[in-house]
Design goal:
The chain is of the alpha+beta class. It has helices at 29-42, 57-68, 132-141, 189-201, 261-276, 282-285, 326-336, 394-405, 416-428, 497-504, and strands at 2-9, 13-14, 17-18, 22-23, 47-49, 52-54, 73-75, 79-82, 87-91, 96-98, 101-103, 107-111, 115-118, 122-126, 155-162, 166-168, 180-185, 227-233, 244-251, 300-304, 315-321, 341-342, 349-350, 355-358, 370-377, 432-439, 461-467, 477-478, 489-496. The chain has 2 domains: 2-82 and 114-211 and 219-233; 244-504, no CATH class. It starts with a strand and ends with a helix.
Length: 505
């Protein structure tokens, strides 16, 4: 919790205007500063200054501290604008000429100030509290503020603690991005407001106050000295956890055909296990003792064609899982530094020393005006047979494969087939969409898997899908039964945003 000044609208309404009378959606830090200055100069803490009053030294120091330290955050409750383009009529005691005779009782119509309904409290927060004298002055000054905005929105102001919903972005470009652009008091604001008040308090000369045939009210000038704009934006949510945290990427000396990637990945796997030697970690071997909990994902070996970033050609990628311990990762990194050649019956190949890349920044950013979707490369294979008890499609199988990659982050009830259906439905709630899933029937489908139950029907498929909010647009991921050995890699396919919108309809 942060040091804060908290404002509770007593009527659950905030009413104020800015500019030429437009509705103010919420009280800015500058409005808070002005309200505190008004209370300091006219309230019980004010001191005499000739025939008038002025803020005491303690309050003046507190106000200057606010100028030098804009709020680090804001707490903004839910609000709802009330009213519309209404006009308020009242007698203002003005002389208004209508025809030949001036009238002093004519009703004058002006745009009525709408209001904002508020469901909670506003707060202005600071990560570091002020010095003790400033905090004490603010604590005594806040209760002297009767209202924020117009007198029709009374408020209770106190010093307390609060959690911000928006944070000040000190590096914001006010022409781009999103957030609340609010007026903030800066150095000199107190002096500018006091000078304007003194000028308005001087009685005008008699000539300026002479009778006119038609009169109108004159608003005091808007003081802009000592004001700046601050961008307050909602904090970005923490990045979602990635199934694999980093990638060891090797450049390969020759292309690897898509239909042989599983076979070549198995050869790389055997070579790495041999290089680690006795005690190779289960996160690499995939062999676990009975009763030992299994992680969602193990080390995954994938091949990339010309789409491989960073190395400019065919590449071998070793994906290191999030569940791996530091000791296991150290053993694996030491072994891969000695990997130079891989023997395969179809023809050996050589690799260059690897570079390590964070998994969540592996792929390039989506192109402007597009949304990132994913395509299985070369194919994906369902993790299980179709569950009993109802309809089940390849799209459902793809959704289940996505859920199994993130199964420790997705809760689903039941066991067995019921849980599989629940997992597939749960990822739909996270925005996962399978736009197409087409079965591949081009010869020996067994080449797309390493080990499989003899009773299981192998159904490789190609799919285009969105991962919703499960991960970012640059994260490398693989799905399906062969995701650890050469299958189910998801490569980016950027679709124009207008096409995506049409697909959604």
């Amino acid at each position: 919790m942060s040091f804060a000044i908290v404002a509770e609208p007593l009527l659950s309404v905030y009413k104020g205007h800015v500019g030429s009378g437009q509705l103010d959606p919420l009280p800015s830090p500058a409005r808070l500063h002005a309200a505190l200055l008004c209370a300091a100069a006219q309230g019980v803490r004010a001191v005499t200054d000739g025939d008038g009053l002025r803020p005491c030294d303690a309050d003046r120091d507190a106000l200057r501290w606010l100028e030098a330290n804009p709020p680090d955050g804001l707490a903004v409750p839910e609000t709802l604008r009330n009213g519309g383009a209404a006009t308020a009529y009242r007698k203002e005691g003005l002389v208004v000429k209508e025809g030949r005779n001036p009238l002093s009782e004519k009703l004058v119509g002006k745009p009525a100030v709408s209001s904002v309904a508020v469901t909670g409290q506003f707060a202005w927060t600071w990560d570091q509290g002020p010095p003790e004298p400033v905090a004490a002055a603010l604590a005594e000054l806040c209760p002297e503020v009767p209202y924020l905005g117009t007198s029709e929105s009374p408020v209770r102001l106190v010093v307390a603690e609060a959690e911000p919903t928006h944070r000040l972005d000190r590096k914001a470009d006010l022409f781009t991005g999103e957030g609340l652009d609010l007026a903030v008091a800066t150095a000199g604001r107190v002096d500018a407001l006091e000078a304007a008040h003194r000028e308005m308090s001087v009685a005008p000369p008699l000539k300026a106050d002479a009778h006119r045939s038609s009169e109108k009210t004159t608003s005091p000038p808007v003081v802009t000295t000592g004001l700046a704009l601050g961008r307050y934006a909602r904090p970005q949510p923490p990045p979602p956890p990635t199934p694999w945290t980093s990638v060891l990427l090797f450049r390969v000396d020759r292309p690897i055909p898509a239909e042989r990637r599983v076979r070549y990945a198995v050869a790389v796997h055997r070579a790495l296990v041999a290089l680690v030697g006795d005690g190779a970690p289960s996160i690499l071997t995939g062999a676990y003792e009975p009763g030992v909990p299994r992680p969602s994902n193990r080390c995954a070996i994938q091949f990339l064609g010309p789409e491989a970033p960073y190395v400019g050609g065919t590449a071998l990628a070793l994906l290191l899982p999030r569940e791996a311990s530091d000791v296991d990762l150290t053993l694996i990194r030491m072994a891969v530094q000695r990997l130079r050649h891989v023997k395969v019956a179809a023809g050996p190949f050589a690799v260059e020393p690897p570079v390590e890349i964070p998994a969540d920044t592996f792929w390039p950013e989506p192109a402007a005006g597009t949304e990132r979707w994913w395509q299985t490369e070369p194919v994906a294979v369902p993790d299980s047979r179709p569950p009993r008890g109802g309809r089940w499609s390849l799209a459902d199988a793809a959704a289940l494969s996505v859920a199994l990659v993130w199964r420790h982050e997705i809760s689903a009830p039941g066991r067995g087939d019921a849980r599989y259906r629940a997992l597939a439905g749960a990822v739909a709630g996270r925005g996962v969409r399978v736009e197409s899933a087409v079965r591949v029937m081009d010869g020996d489908v067994g080449r797309y898997v390493h080990k499989v139950n003899p009773d299981t029907v192998i159904q490789p498929y190609r799919a285009v899908l969105s991962l919703g909010d499960l991960t970012g647009p640059r994260t490398i991921v693989a799905i399906g039964q062969s995701r650890h050995l050469g299958g189910g890699l998801l490569v980016p396919r950027d679709l124009p945003s207008d096409i995506v919108r049409r697909l959604a309809r």
